[in-house]
Model the fold of this input.
Amino acid sequence: MSTSRTTPTDRISWASAACAQKDADPEWWHSNLRKDRVKARARCRNCPLQEPCLAEAMHREGDARAADRKGIYGGLDGQQRHKYHTTGIRPDPVEPPAQPLHRTTGRTPSGCGTEAAYQRHLRKGEAICTPCREAHRARAVRQRAARKAERQAEFVS
Ligand code: SF4
Ligand SMILES: [Zn+2]
Done:
């Protein structure tokens, strides 16, 4: 074996890649839409280059954070590749389930970065993410300002 530091996939031709075929939209692999990502993963599943593709992505991304691993490669999204990198356990190349509907209201729960999501983190005993923490702090600031304005209005009247 050669010991030169090449990528694992230097000599591969990607022409047969499922994502390089005419009936595939390359946007699916980088889409925020669940339906697109499901299509991308279905193509990856039947792609003859799935193994080298994943190896290439893992090699290129090195120790990158999950948030910096963009797109789907070898059927895995950035979160999954990060998990694979940090645990050594290769996740199933499936799209995580859509957010479950709220138990009592039947609505999709508020996304992070809202007071409702902040409260949900608290109820579930979860770590509070940065967007939720910021939303909660901003709300407290607004409430203090509103109370202050009220007191001033009482004072002048
Ligand atoms: S496995 Fe890689 S090369 Fe194959 S379709 Fe998926 S992203 Fe494209
Ligand atoms: Zn949150």
Remarks:
- The pocket of iron/sulfur cluster (ligand 1) is lined by residues 17-19, 29, 43-44, 47, 49-50, 53, 73-75 (CB under 6 Å).
- Residues 1-5 have pLDDT under 50 and may be disordered.
- Residues 16-87 form one domain.
